[in-house]
Amino acid sequence: MYKYKVIMTGGGTAGHVTPNLALVPALKENGFEVKYIGSKDGIEKEIIKNNNIPYFQISSGKLRRYFDLKNFSDPFKVLKGIKDANKILKKEKPDVVFSKGGFVAVPVVIAAHLRKIPVVAHESDMTPGLANKLSAPFCSKLCVTFRESLKYIKDNKGVLTGSPIRTEILNGSKEKGLEICNFNKSKEVILIMGGSLGSKIINDEIRGNLELLLKDFNIIHICGKGNLDNNLLDKVGYKQFEYVSEELPDLMSAADYIISRAGANSIFEFLALRKPMLLIPLSKKASRGDQILNANSFKNEGYALVLNEEELINSTLYNKILELKSNKKNIINAMNNMNGKNSIDLIIEVILKSIKG
């Protein structure tokens, strides 16, 4: 018998979904029945259904900061989404709603507020995204990943919790990871991740430096869908993947270093695993600049080196990797000195307090 019911929401990208999944086992241990509201065709639908969580779909419109003709029609989709969410919440009667942001979350948060259901939200990046900015007035509390984020949250609603880490990420096997890649153990391993869609600029630079890198390292390269290089399929010491799911914990365990974009969820997983990282954040041209802030925060804490896209030329990348190798011990020491309670426990605490008022 469940003590509480929580409706979770969030979608649009994997980053708005995977932290929710990290919370689910702990929520269930604390007596919660868990259900999910998402969009009709977002990435969250498949991910949530694959995890056997009851899923309700609503209408949703994208929130944009730029001009687009859809800006005239999408507000009506949001209004329809509020109506859809209200109907679901009326029937399900949850004790609390937990939002991870993304455009699908806004109608759910507003509907919960109208039904006087407490809402707890979580923001991964240093500055709140548009969805969480719009949701904040309707939330009881807004959990944040970075200490610097608290200054952006009004009305004393901000709570520093960090980022929830999926338990399975922490339980990978180094031996299995090396076996998957058919690597020998004589060289250290670099894992390269360019985000769920891959990154052409990172892929090109890694492959441009490949002969040099393979002298000292084995390379695991998650390059994104459609980005495999068929000429390198049999290259010794170099293993390409378009995308990985089940194997990811083992590949991360096998890695001595990680080169990656600077999405908050990913870099906190690397931190939890104590993996020295070289972060190449998305440029301001391609984003709102949140990855640059995330990367610089980790650099200032001593957890990472940072290389901006504008600096990404062959000699710079290789030299930065050598710098990462020479700083390995110092970076791991900085990570080990990090203090703080388990993020999942802190978030569950906030959720329980919001129910009890």
TrEMBL record:
It is a peripheral membrane protein. CDD domains: GT28_MurG. Residues 189-344 form the Glycosyl transferase family 28 C-terminal domain. GO terms for biological process: carbohydrate metabolic process; cell division; cell wall organization; peptidoglycan biosynthetic process; regulation of cell shape. Its EC number is 2.4.1.227. SUPFAM superfamilies: UDP-Glycosyltransferase/glycogen phosphorylase. NCBIfam families: murG (TIGR01133), PRK12446.1 (NF009102). Cell wall formation. Catalyzes the transfer of a GlcNAc subunit on undecaprenyl-pyrophosphoryl-MurNAc-pentapeptide (lipid intermediate I) to form undecaprenyl-pyrophosphoryl-MurNAc-(pentapeptide)GlcNAc (lipid intermediate II). This is UDP-N-acetylglucosamine--N-acetylmuramyl-(pentapeptide) pyrophosphoryl-undecaprenol N-acetylglucosamine transferase. It comes from Clostridium botulinum. The gene is murG.
